[in-house]
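Contributing new complexes? Match this layout with phosphoric acid mono(formamide)ester.
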Amino acid sequence: MNSFFSVKDIDNLDKIVEESLELKKNPRSYLKLGEGKMLGLVFLNPSLRTRMSTQKAALNLGMDVIVMNMAQDGWALETQDGVIMNGNTVEHIREAAAVMGQYCDIIGLRSFPSLKDREEDYNEDLFNKFKKYCQVPLISLESATRHPLQSLTDLITIKETWTGNSFQKPNVLLAWAPHIRSLPQAVPNSFAEWMCRAQQEDMLNFKIAQPKGYELSTEFTQEAEISYDLEEAIKNVDYIYVKNWSSYEDYGRVYSIDQDWMLDQNKLKTTRSAKVMHCLPVRRDLVIASDILDSESSIVIQQAGNRVWAAQAVLKRILESINK
Ligand code: CP
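Output block (do not edit by hand):
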C-alpha cells in the first residue's frame, strides 16, 4: 500500500479487518518495523481521536511521530496556483508539503471541506496537491469527502461485536440525525462506500435512512437501499450508525433541525437489540439521547478505541511497502 485515501486502496476487506484484530491482540508485535521512520501528522482542523489513535498506532510500530497543528502553529497556507500572495496567506502548499516530505517518511493529513464550493471539495483539490508535492506516502486523516480510517474502524467494530452465526449477516443502518451546524458529508460518504463494498463481499446488509434533501452522492451510496422513514427503516436492524450531514445537492445546506430524527429509546425498541455507533464527537440529546449513550446499546467507546488498530494496520502495510 502506497497511500490511503479510500476503500479502493484495500483489496480484501475481511483480510485487513482480521489483521487489525490480530494487532489488537498483540499491539507491539511489529515494534521493529517502523524503527528509524518518521510519521508526520498534519492537522488543518481539530481532532481528538484521529490524532491520539494514529500517534499511538505509530508508536506501537516503533515509529517516531511529529504532530503539526497548522491552524494554530503553522503559516497560513495558500493552495491556489497563480495567486499573487499579497493577502493573508504566507506559505504556498507547494513549499509547505515539499518541506514536510523532507522530514517525514509517511504523512497523515486532515483537511475538512469548505462546504462552499462543491466542485473544489469533491475534486479533493487540497489533498491531491499535498500528495503531489510532499512526495511521500500520504494517509487521509479525513479529507473533504472521506474518512477512511474511521470507516475501517467501523467495519472492525461490527465484525468484533457481531454475535450472529456464520450464516447470518448483520443488518446495518446509517441514520441521519439532527445537528445545529452544517457538517461535511465525509463520514457518511465514507461509511456508505465501505458498507456497500462490505455488502458486495457478503459481509453484511446495508441501508440508509435520511430526510428528503439529504441524499449523498450516488458515487458513495451505489446500490444501497434508501429510506425516508426512520421508524420503518430501523425495524430489525442490528447496528445503527448515527450521523448528521448537510445537503450534498444544495451544497452545505441544513434544511431543519428535526428532532424526530434524534435516536431515542422508543425508536431503539423496534430493532433487534441494535448496537449504536457514532464516530464522535457527539452532541448529547441533539443527535443521540443521553440514556442511549450511557446504556449497553452504545458501543461508541469501543468503536473509538478501535481507531488505533485501523491506523496500525494501514501504517503497517505502508511501512512494509517502503521497507521492500
Ligand atoms: N471521529 C473522529 O475522527 O474524531 P476526531 O475528529 O476527534 O479525530
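Reviewers usually confirm one structural detail per submission. For this one: The first strand starts at residue 38 and ends at 43.
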